Amino acid sequence: MGQVLEVSNIHKAFGGIKAVNGVSFAVQEGEILGIIGPNGCGKSTLFNCILGQLEPSEGSVKLDGRDVTGMRPSDLNRLGVSRTFQLLQVFPELSVRENLILAGQEHEGTMLSRFFGRRDAGLSEKADTMIGFFKLGHLVDAKAGGLSYGQQKLLDAAMAFMAGPRLVLLDEPAGGVNLTMLGDLKERLRAINAEQGATFVVIEHNMDFVMSLCTRVVVLAEGKVLAEGTPAEVRANPQVVEAYLGH
Amino acid sequence: MTAPATHGAATERRGLALPSSIDGTLVTLVLGAAILWFAPAGMGRYGTYVLSLWLVMSIAVMGLNLTLGYAGLKSLAQAAFMGLGAYATALLTSKLGLNWYAAFAISGLLTFAVGLVLGFPALRVQAHYLAFVTLAFSTLIWLILRNEQWLTGGVFGLSNIPRPSFLSVKLDGALEFHRFVVVVTFILAAALWWMIRSPWGRAFMALRENPVRAASLGVDTRMYTLLAFAIGSAYAGFAGALYAPLVEFIDPSPFSLSQSFFLLLMVVAGGSGYLLGPFIGALLGVVLPEWLRVVGSLYLIVFATIVMLLLIACPQGVSGLIERGWAKLTGKAGGR
Amino acid sequence: MKMQWILATALSAALGLPALAQDKVKLVDVVELSGAGATAGTNWKNGIDLAVADINAKGGILGKQIEITHYDTQTNPGNTRAAVQRAIDEGTYAVLGPVFSGPIGASMQIAQRAEIAQFVGGEAANLTMQGNKYLFRTSLSQTAAMPKIAAYLKNTVKAGSVAVVWVNNDFGKGGRDAILPELEKAGIKVAVDVATEQGQADFAADAIKVKNSNADAIFVYLNEEESARFLRAAKQQGVTKPMVGETTLLGSKVIELAGEAANGVKGHVGLSIDAPIPAFQEFGKKFQAKYNYVSDHNGLKGYMAVYMIKWATEKQKTFDKKGVADTLRGATIKPSDEPGIMIETTIEQNGDLDRESFLAEVKDGKQVITATLPKIKP
Amino acid sequence: MAEFIAYLIAGIATGAIYALAAIGFTLVWQTSQTINFAQGEFVMLPAVLVLLAIKLFGAPIWLGALIGIAAFILIFGAGFKLAVVDPMIKHGVLPLAIATMALSIIMKEGAKDAFSAEAQNFPSFVPTQTISVFGASISLQHLAIIIVAFAVIGLLQWFVGGTRLGRQMQATAQNPTVARILGIPVERMVLLTFVINAALAVVASALISPIYLAKFSNGEVIGLFAFIAAIVGGFNQVRGALVGGLVVGIVDSMAAAYISTSYRLAVPLVLLVVIILLKPEGLMGRKEERRV
């Protein structure tokens, strides 16, 4: 089992406020890693630093041993790192299928082939398969903006998987999703993890969701790593209980 | 009319996976070209000129529509790019005796390259810096056109710009040249239609709706943004290359900053992000003064007010209004 | 053809115009009513309207009433060209306008090709050098005016060096290009050559530059409000050398806007409602009464243009379009034959005009004519 | 040297005018992230409205001024915000920016058609005398503009930093969502900003018009230079307008003096491009982080 992602000593400050203050962790191939922590502990900022949306003030990010610190999000994505956002991020004016084709089209061919080639970039079937997998088959041609919140959340996740990524970072996938949908989502994620061997990092508030999905959990507090271990170990850690789980 | 096809019907038909499937927009383009081919009958030279001018402006607006409507960038230099194309064509054909077709291609290449050079540093920072840089560029170009009299004729302009010929047919007459403009406009519009339907078009739209998400899906936002701006600028260059022989005289005034603003307003009036919007926008901008002869110079106020009201009531412009009307008629849940 | 007829009828019916084309003569004025040329263009248009009203009230031309149409060019050469084409398509008897030299240059070949006389308000030298037999000026050209300025600078002002301040548009650039060789001929040195922008608001730096050049006199060739702004800035910077100008600088609008700063300005005036000719002053009063502001020389130009057409038509006794130009070339129109022409005017073969002009000075906020200059070829 | 000082002082005097006009850019930017392309017309119009009121109602100058100013602040301060900004801002800032272009045409052409195509004199509230500073002359009018520009910026800084209302306004500008949660009447704060912008435009108009004359097309030049000043100084800082205005004024004056006058206009534009390349946030601006 190789190491997919290695994050070392990431710092990020906004003005005088240190949002992330020296975070290090590693992600092993095939695992589902959870990152938890109270509001404002720097989870999203950490994500954005890893994914090139923000430039870290200090520290490095390595993908398969290669330094990708500060690399542009689009390039990182084409190396196989995919993500979802805390707030919903689908393209409302495009249909469900178009959303998925978009998520895959930049991973194949060249700019020229994308201009002169097929307009679906040969991805229609793959998109339909993915849509079926996420149980949105009846909505293939609907505009994404017209879907329910939970459906959009599923679409959002589906887009992250469209290009067959090595590593997927999910930012609060369970936020605002109702219980039935939540079950669906968890089941889908597990299935992809099992079938495609995809590796996950999940930021989540919903404790039950994280504890039942993840194989390992990193706890952040005030921009630093507070604890790390299996769900059971973390649950038993007194520091964590005090800082986060306690209330 | 046609607008629903660009978004609704076309999107839905994509599932058929027919790369060359014909949609409403293309049908409208073909029909429009056919009608315009015969339209000037009995209109006189002036009427024909206005029709041709409308099409030429439509090309420039089409380019800006790509920049603004599809990629969401504010360019304040579309008229300046048009000027570059017009002067390049005028100088190459009248002073160097170059063939118009070569001059046309050079005009497009030149404006495309300048667009890249201009866009690269600006888009590195933030999208709205493109507006600042193009504003400066627009005025600088205008100054050069005016000051370098040895080359551009300065304030006195360039006259006696020759019209092209097709095969061995001379296109000096108003009607012949109009038909030539119709054909060139059709080709350029069809090329844009193809691009918008290709994966590029999808990337452009993703860029406009949510650039951050698009980047996280592997869309090279900088590359596509630059391309949209450079291609949009090249269309202005093409428009300029037709404008010069159409008017047979150019001076710096139609390429000023305020003209660039005016072109932006045309994009919005017609419906930004709709392939056929530019034709409607340019119609309002170019032909409206003809319809509003009665009110004299008030036409500018009328035009600007129409744009304002559209922006308040329906930011998708006239195309958006038509789409809404269509949705109502067909009973579909339309509008946004 | 029939289609057009129906359209035209429908259109005129819709606009409430009487469609009695037979006893009317159609004139189209193509002019700058919006854009940079709006001020000059509006004066020109009002002058024309005044003339048309006068003529129609007295029975028209050869018994026909004049029907005047104005087309706005937006000060855009392309539009001007198209509008002239349109005027000819619609069968205008002659083309009036435009006023700015750039748009004239863009559109003059159209009227020439159609062999229809075009009466323009432009003063740029190059317009009448292209062998166009159908183009007629309504004022002195810059080539005619500038030698008079140079002579004035040399003989009256006794300047050895001159600062030239000009506006960088077709009007100003043309004037500057015309005066420089004349200054050289007169042995006057150009101390500093200052280009300014059309619509420029701030002239402080330009005034300092002129002041520092230590020129004996300053030749100012700007449009109306820029002239006023420059005069004010010059006064503020303590420029004391004489300001010399051509027509515009001594115009009523400049005097009104510049206030005290205009006092002492001198120069050459082609057309002016302040000229010591009763007809001019009367025109000024009529114009003021109708439009509630003071006409500049463009108002006079427009007014006289219509009378040039009237005179030519009555002379040839028929509405022959081509004949208008033929009749006018080389003719001399005297106010005794046609009072509307106001001042004896000779039309040269190339379309230039020759007439008396004036030297003037601004005293106590008023233009005072100090001398009358004879025609170049009396 | 005396020559240089003369140009410098002329540049500062002109720069203060640009600064006064540029403040509005920064205010509108801060509250709605929009470039107001009609800013130049905002400065042009009050003077025209005052003259129009005098002409239409035959009112004495003070009454004309009162009517014109009240009408302007009402229509283009409150009215602009309610009729243009409010309905449009939900569609994003792009339509709003374009709407201000349309607005500038309406204001300009409206002033021309309703008032006059020609420039008109505007009475000065300041004596027109000239005084001598270091051998260079400067008019009391320009001096007044410099003083007012500094005073207005100082007052705004104090208002924003030192008063409760001002801090609320500042909070709204920085993050409307958070401000709303904190119980700040966000809508009213934004409205207030626009009214302040209109009031400043009136002050600028009253000071500038006696020198530049009242004309419908004045907004083009003033707007362009104020825009450059705002970018050079920094769009997101009110004091950026002051610094930018002065820098642009001085650079323009020096360009007229020492560089080809036909390319004078190019110099501030090149400065603008250089600033964008080297310090995109402007001389005084705050760096805006890319946020997700």
Automatic annotation (TrEMBL), chain A:
The lineage of its organism: Bacteria, Pseudomonadati, Pseudomonadota, Alphaproteobacteria, Hyphomicrobiales. Keywords: ATP-binding, Nucleotide-binding, Transport. One of its GO terms (cellular component) is plasma membrane. GO terms for molecular function: ATP binding; ATP hydrolysis activity. It comes from the Bacteria. It comes from Bosea caraganae. The keyword Nucleus does not apply. This is ABC transporter ATP-binding protein. It holds the Pfam family BCA_ABC_TP_C.
TrEMBL record, chain B:
It is found in: Cell membrane. CDD domains: TM_PBP1_LivM_like. Its main location: membrane. GO terms for molecular function: branched-chain amino acid transmembrane transporter activity. It comes from the Bacteria. The chain crosses the membrane at residues 21-40, 46-68, 100-120, 127-145, 177-196, 223-246, 261-286, 298-318. One of its GO terms (cellular component) is plasma membrane. Coiled coil: none annotated. Pfam families: BPD_transp_2 (PF02653). It is a multi-pass membrane protein. InterPro entries: ABC_transp_permease, LivM-like. Keywords: Cell membrane, Membrane, Transmembrane, Transmembrane helix. This is Branched-chain amino acid ABC transporter permease.
From TrEMBL, chain C:
Coiled coil: none annotated. Keywords: Amino-acid transport, Signal, Transport. Residues 1-21 form the signal peptide. Residues 30-365 form the Leucine-binding protein domain. GO terms for biological process: amino acid transport. It holds the Pfam family Peripla_BP_6. InterPro entries: BCAA_transport, Leu-bd, Leu_Ile_Val-bd, Peripla_BP_I. PANTHER family: LEUCINE-SPECIFIC-BINDING PROTEIN (PTHR30483), PERIPLASMIC BINDING PROTEIN OF ABC TRANSPORTER FOR NATURAL AMINO ACIDS (PTHR30483:SF6). Belongs to the leucine-binding protein family. This is Amino acid ABC transporter substrate-binding protein. It comes from Bosea caraganae.
From TrEMBL, chain D:
InterPro entries: ABC_transp_permease (IPR001851), BCAA_transport_permease (IPR052157). One of its GO terms (biological process) is amino acid transport. Its main location: membrane. It is found in: Cell membrane. It comes from Bosea caraganae. Keywords: Amino-acid transport, Cell membrane, Membrane, Transmembrane, Transmembrane helix, Transport. Belongs to the binding-protein-dependent transport system permease family. LivHM subfamily. The keyword Iron does not apply. It comes from the Bacteria. Signal peptide: none annotated. PANTHER family: ABC TRANSPORTER PERMEASE PROTEIN, BRANCHED-CHAIN AMINO ACID TRANSPORT SYSTEM PERMEASE PROTEIN LIVH. GO terms for cellular component: plasma membrane. The chain crosses the membrane at residues 6-28, 60-80, 92-111, 131-160, 190-213, 219-235, 265-284. It is a multi-pass membrane protein. This is Branched-chain amino acid ABC transporter permease. GO terms for molecular function: transmembrane transporter activity. Pfam families: BPD_transp_2.
